[in-house]
């Protein structure tokens, strides 16, 4: 491929800068200018394709990039551009092949090596990632990001000892160590320390913590690590002092209280009577020291038993009911795993209710008159208590009484709706939630709850109309915006509603949307976190992404998607339906004709609606949904293969759930 003359070569450099600065239209015009004189210049053809890709002309983009490659097969630029094109379509496997080909031609191109390493970490090829990072480090040993990248590669390969060696070597090369705490240097040192902890050498991690203390900005993390190391090394007194400092800093952090408890030798759950008394005394001391700490008041309920529990629970509940804390029951319901505690809480709550009716106080002595709201919040608590026990009639009786007392409190209607939902009356539950929504039209949370209940009642049109009330006014397609904003509750509930209505295409479309962008969204952070040195957060992100599909939402979506695909396999289009069982051939023919006419009518109506929607979206400049019915999912030739894509992540990440194995049984039975 002959080189461009000086004028065009300079223009080519300019269009490369246009790409870097995201000036795609300007770059496209520059490429066109070169191609007028040199229509077969491969690298310019490839770049033109890249610009077209960013101008939403995918087919033309691929056409020009392939054309560019045909004219200059030995150009690393053409292969790199081809890789970028595949990467933008999230086809990482093909992109990696293109980058690999580009590196065969230009082995030391930093930009290609960087992009190659990003794809390797995205696809979790940590060995390849380490190898690429090693090459980058050899090429530019003065670049901090390359040292850190190699350390992370070894760490994620399960070799933190090698990661530590890399960081230690880099730290030894530093000539100008910041005299004052510097955030980026501080984060690198704390990351180094966390790797030392992972090797299991806690004493070395503690010693390292002492040496880096003056350079660390995150004082809280420093104190937390030190307290944790003291505890792990059995230095109980030092651990107790460290945890008391942390509790003083944040007296509502439950983890600090747990650490303090372990440091005085009371870390186990099966406490003797003497140990229980000692622990309760500690909490009393902490309550006096930190009177506004909710954790110091709530934790004794977890450890107290018998009469001590009744005494502590009585004080805790009275204070919260007096103040009118709506979340009291949510705080208490974790105790219901213990039957004795659940019975004690019920006895106390019913006692308060009877006393309030009789003397307007929490006890029958009549010595103290509680505020009028105390009765309201006690009724609210008792209603939630009975709902938790699924005694719906008792729960409804108490919540109705609370609504009579204060008919303008939104929380009461929400609880009534929940009781009705648990009782199986989705329509009435929806009506009650809508009543609650109308009490406060500015509350987004209650609007979302109401929409959710509408979806549970399969009132799709009403739910969509309600949920978009809080969408931005300039959005052309508010429902699609909810998907872009990753409102998982809406996507999942809508999918389940479609499934109940046997709209398999629409249901599958929703289940595929769930978590679709989460994996892709991490891509930008591979470079960003190395640049900004947010290393501990980055490692947490990688580990979270690897466990993402064990989340309850994905499990539900996977179950439902597998059910859809099994239905498609068992009853493919054109097969006899259950309604046709027992019919003669003539009757079946007549029934099919009737069905076909109904389908054609429905299709015509759908097309009219789509055309109308397209016009409205086009006016606002939005993107049109080409497949609102999700037909591409129902037309699949291998429904069981598609179902397996949902099942396999669960077999790896949620193998302890019975649903995973039940789904697997149904699939493999059919295979």
Automatic annotation (TrEMBL):
**Which SMART domains does its entry note?**
TPR (SM00028)
Per the record, the coiled-coil ranges are: 583-617
- Start and stop residues of the TPR repeats: 76-109
Q: Which InterPro entries match?
A: NatA_aux_su, TPR-like_helical_dom_sf, TPR_2, TPR_rpt
One cellular component term (GO) for this entry is:
NatA complex
Identify the keywords attached in UniProt to this record, alphabetized: Coiled coil, Repeat, TPR repeat
The superkingdom listed in its UniProt entry is: Eukaryota
**Pfam families per the record?**
NatA_aux_su, TPR_2
The answer on whether this UniProt entry bears the keyword Transmembrane helix reads no
Keyword Coiled coil part of the UniProt annotation: yes
User: What's the name of the protein?
Assistant: N-alpha-acetyltransferase 16, NatA auxiliary subunit
> What is the organism of origin for this protein?
Linnemannia gamsii
């Amino acid at each position: 491929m002959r080189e461009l003359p000086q004028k065009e070569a300079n223009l080519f450099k300019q269009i490369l800068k246009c790409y870097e600065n995201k000036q795609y239209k300007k770059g496209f015009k520059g490429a066109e200018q070169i191609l007028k004189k040199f229509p077969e210049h491969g690298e310019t053809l490839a770049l033109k394709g890249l610009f077209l890709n960013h101008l939403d002309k995918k087919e033309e983009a691929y056409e020009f990039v392939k054309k560019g490659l045909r004219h200059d097969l030995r150009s690393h630029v053409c292969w790199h551009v081809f890789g970028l094109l595949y990467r933008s379509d999230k086809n990482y496997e093909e992109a990696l092949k293109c980058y690999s080909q580009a590196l065969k031609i230009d082995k030391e191109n930093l930009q290609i090596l960087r992009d190659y390493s990003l794809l390797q970490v995205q696809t979790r090829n940590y060995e390849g990632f380490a190898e690429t990072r090693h090459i980058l480090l050899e090429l530019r040993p003065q670049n901090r990001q390359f040292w850190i990248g190699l350390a992370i590669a070894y760490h994620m390969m399960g070799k933190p000892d090698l990661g530590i060696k890399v960081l230690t070597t880099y730290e030894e090369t530093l000539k100008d160590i910041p005299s004052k705490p510097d955030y980026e240097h501080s984060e690198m040192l704390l990351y180094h320390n966390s790797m030392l902890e992972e090797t299991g050498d806690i004493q070395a991690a503690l010693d390292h913590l002492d040496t880096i203390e003056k350079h660390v900005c995150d004082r809280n993390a420093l104190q937390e690590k030190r307290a944790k190391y003291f505890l792990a090394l059995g230095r109980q007194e030092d651990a107790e002092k460290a945890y008391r400092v942390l509790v003083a800093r944040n007296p509502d952090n439950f983890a600090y209280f747990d650490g303090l408890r372990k440091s005085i030798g009371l870390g186990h759950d099966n406490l003797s009577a003497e140990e229980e008394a000692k622990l309760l005394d500690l909490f009393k001391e902490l309550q006096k020291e930190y009177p506004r700490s909710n954790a110091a008041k709530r934790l004794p309920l977890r450890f107290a038993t018998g009469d001590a529990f009744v005494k502590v629970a009585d004080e805790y509940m009275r204070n919260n009911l007096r103040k009118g804390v709506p979340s009291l029951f949510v705080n208490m319901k974790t105790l219901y795993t213990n039957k004795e505690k659940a019975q004690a809480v019920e006895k106390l709550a019913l006692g308060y209710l009877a006393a309030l009716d009789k003397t307007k106080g929490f006890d029958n002595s009549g010595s103290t008159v509680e505020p009028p709201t105390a009765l309201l919040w006690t009724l609210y608590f008792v209603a939630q208590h009975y709902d938790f026990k699924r005694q719906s009639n008792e729960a409804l009786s108490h919540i109705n009484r609370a609504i009579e007392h204060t008919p303008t409190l939104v929380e009461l209607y929400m609880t009534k709706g929940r009781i009705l939902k648990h009782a199986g009356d989705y329509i009435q539950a929806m009506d009650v939630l809508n009543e609650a929504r109308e009490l406060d039209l500015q509350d987004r949370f209650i609007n979302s709850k109401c929409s959710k209940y509408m979806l549970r009642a399969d009132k799709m049109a009403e739910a969509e109309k309600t949920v978009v009330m809080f969408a931005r006014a300039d959005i052309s397609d508010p429902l699609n915006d909810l998907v872009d904003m990753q409102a998982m509750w809406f996507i999942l509930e809508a999918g389940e509603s479609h499934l109940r209505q046997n709209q398999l295409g629409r249901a599958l479309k929703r289940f595929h949307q769930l978590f679709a962008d989460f994996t892709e969204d991490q891509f930008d952070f591979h470079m960003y976190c190395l640049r900004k040195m947010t290393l501990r957060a980055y490692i947490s992100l990688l580990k979270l992404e690897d466990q993402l599909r064990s989340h309850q939402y994905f499990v539900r979506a996977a179950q439902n998607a597998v059910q859809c695909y099994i239905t498609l396999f068992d009853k493919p289009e054109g097969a006899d339906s259950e309604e046709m069982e027992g019919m003669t051939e003539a009757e079946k023919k007549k029934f099919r004709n009737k069905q076909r006419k109904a389908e054609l009518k429905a299709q015509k109506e759908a097309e009219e609606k789509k055309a109308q929607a397209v016009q409205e979206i086009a006016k606002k400049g939005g993107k049109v949904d080409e497949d609102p019915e999700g037909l591409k999912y129902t037309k699949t030739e291998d429904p069981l293969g598609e179902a397996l894509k949902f099942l396999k992540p669960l077999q790896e990440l949620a193998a302890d759930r019975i649903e995973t194995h039940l789904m697997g049984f149904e699939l493999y039975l059919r295979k």
